[in-house]
Amino acid sequence: MDTATHFTPILEQVLEEVRPLTLHGKVASYIPELSHIDRSKLGMALYLPDGGIYTAGDAHERFSIQSISKVFTLVMAYRTLGNALWERVGREPSGNPFNSLVQLETDKGVPRNPFINAGALVVTDILCSQYVNPHLAILEFIRQVSGVPDINFNTRVARSEAQHGFRNAAMANFIKSFGNLKAPVDNVLQAYFHQCSIEMSCAELVRAAQLLVHYGTAPGVSEALLTPSEVRRVASIMLTCGTYDAAGDFAFRIGLPAKSGVGGGILAVVPGRMALCVWSPALDVHGNSLAGAKALELFAGRTGFSIF
Ligand code: GLN
After folding, report:
1. Is 222 annotated as catalytic?
2. What is the DSSP string of 256-302?
3. Would the CB of 240 count as within 6 Å of ligand 1?
4. Measured from the CB, is residue 180 less than 6 Å from ligand 1?
5. Residue 304 neighbours by CB under 8 Å, 6+ apart
6. Which alpha helices (DSSP H) does the chain contain, by range?
7. Ligand 1 atom, smallest distance to 287 CA
8. Which stretches of the chain score pLDDT less than 70?
9. What domains are there in the chain, each with its CATH number?
10. Among 307, 290, 297, which Cα is nearest to 28's?
11. What's the predicted TM-score (pTM) here?
C-alpha cells in the first residue's frame, strides 16, 4: 500500500470518530469576532519529510491561527538573538492558563516560557526592535516558510482583539514596568494582535512547519533558519509548554510536541518525522481544541507517531 492510500483513510476515520466531540466545549468568545465560527468545522493535515501532504475534512479552509503564530515568532526571535533570548524569556512550563499574570511579579517580568501570552509578548517585542513593521515581517516570514504568498491577517479579528485585549495590555504594561519590553507597549500589542489574527489552513500550517520537520531548512529559503539543535529546543518547548496547563496531559495522551491556538487549531511536529495539524473550533477549559486533541491522540495511537 502506498503512503497516500495508507494515511488518508486513517485521517478520515479519526475525524469521523471525533466528530461527536465537536458538539462539546466552547468556541472562544473573549475575542468577539472569533465567536461566530461554525463549531462543526473539522479538518486535519499531515506532512511527511518526503514532501507528501495528506488531508481530510476541512483541511483546506483557513482559520485564525492565534497562538500557533507563537511558534513562528519564536523561530524568528531565536534566529535574531540566539541563546541571549533565554535572558528575556524562560523555558519552564507555567502550570497556569495561557493568559495568566500571576507569576510575572515573582519572576520579575521574565515570563516562564515563550508560549504563554506574557512570553509571546516579549518575543514579539524582540521583533519590534528588529523590524520597522514587525507585523509585516512576521507575515512575510510565514508566507516564505509555507511557500503560500497569499496568507494574510484578518484585520477584523486583530481589531476585535485590540478592543477587548485588556488582559494582554495589562500584561504588556506589567512586563514593561520590569524593563523587559523595549518597544512602546502599543507597538508590541498591535504586532501581537496582528500575528494572532493570521489565517491559515491545516494544509498550510503543516507546510509552514516543514522548517521544523527539516531541522531548520525550508524549501525556497536559501539559508538555514535554525540549527538542528535549535529546532530540537523549539520542539521541546512545544512539548512542555505548547498547550499551557494541559501540557502534561498532552504529553501523556498524545506524545507529540504541539502548539495550540484559541482559534481551535493544534499544530504538532516531530523533527525528522512529520508535521500534523488539526482544526476544530470548540475548546476545552484550558483553551485547547477539544475534538482536535482527541484526533491527535487517536492518530498518534494508530500510526505510532510519538516521540516516546
Ligand atoms: N490572541 C489570543 C490571546 O492573546 C491568543 C491566545 C491563544 O491562542 N491561546 O489571548
Report:
1. no
2. S-EEE-TTSEEEEEETTTEEEEEE--EE-TTSSBHHHHHHHHHHHHH
3. no
4. no
5. none
6. 3-18, 69-81, 102-106, 117-130, 134-146, 155-164, 166-177, 185-196, 202-208, 210-213, 228-241, 247-253, 290-303
7. 9
8. 1-5
9. 4-303 (3.40.710.10)
10. 290
11. 0.97
